[in-house]
Specification:
The protein has 191 residues and is α+β, with helices and mostly antiparallel strands. The protein has 2 domains: 91 residues, P-loop containing nucleotide triphosphate hydrolases (Rossmann fold); 59 residues, OB fold (Dihydrolipoamide Acetyltransferase, E2P) (Beta Barrel). Helices cover 35% and strands 32% of the residues. A hairpin with a 2-residue loop joins strand 3 and strand 4. Helix 1 packs parallel to helix 3 and helix 3 packs parallel to helix 4.
Length: 191
């Protein structure tokens, strides 16, 4: 089935199909087959197909996780536009703080199936203790002793950061684990 046939299979409303294809900038591709589309284009077709029945509730499980940053931002814009136009309540699973901050009106944080936090994106994502200057999450790649100090190499997105840590932190941390790093009066705090 072509992109257009895929949408019309769900609902025969040609006007709605054309409108969704226009919003997601897929109009030019409506006669193309799925195997000729990029990953981002396929994601946009999936979103259009889901919207063809004008659902009251839309569930999305990490819909943008496999996309490059440019396409991810583009699809975020399209999701916001579709939400504004159709008013569909959307429940979306995401582990990307910037995506959550941009798309969510409410955030529920789960751990092992239990709600551990609930609130507006700003309240949840910008929570701090004390007077932190910044906070980030990263993957611990390496711990090394250099003279009398310990250095932790942490991957944050596409960047690697070196952080001075205490001997006790060096003993307690494990390579590969996800850690939070924040500053308080220029002293990094690792958790």
């Amino acid at each position: 089935m072509t992109v257009e046939e895929n949408l019309l299979f769900v609902n025969k409303d040609q006007e709605l199909a054309n409108h969704l294809l226009e919003i997601t900038e897929l109009s030019e591709l409506k006669k193309r087959l799925p195997n000729t589309l990029s990953g981002g284009q396929k994601q946009r077709v999936s979103l259009c197909r889901a919207m063809m029945n004008r659902p009251k509730l839309l569930l999305m499980d990490e819909p943008l996780s496999a996309l490059d940053p440019t396409m991810r931002t583009k699809l975020q814009n399209e999701i916001l536009q579709l939400h504004k136009e159709f008013g569909t309540t959307t429940i979306m699973v995401s582990h990307d703080p910037s995506e959550i901050y941009r798309l969510a009106s409410r955030v529920v944080v789960l751990n092992l199936g239990k709600v551990i936090n609930d609130g507006k994106p700003k309240e949840i994502l910008l929570q701090t203790t004390g007077s932190q200057k910044f906070s980030f999450k990263g993957e611990l790649l390496e711990i090394m002793k250099v003279d009398v100090i310990y250095l932790a190499i942490v991957a944050i997105g596409q960047q690697l950061v070196e952080i001075v840590i205490s001997e006790e932190e060096a003993k307690n941390l494990k390579i590969g684990e996800s850690i939070n790093v924040s500053t308080k009066a220029f002293a990094p705090i690792i958790s």
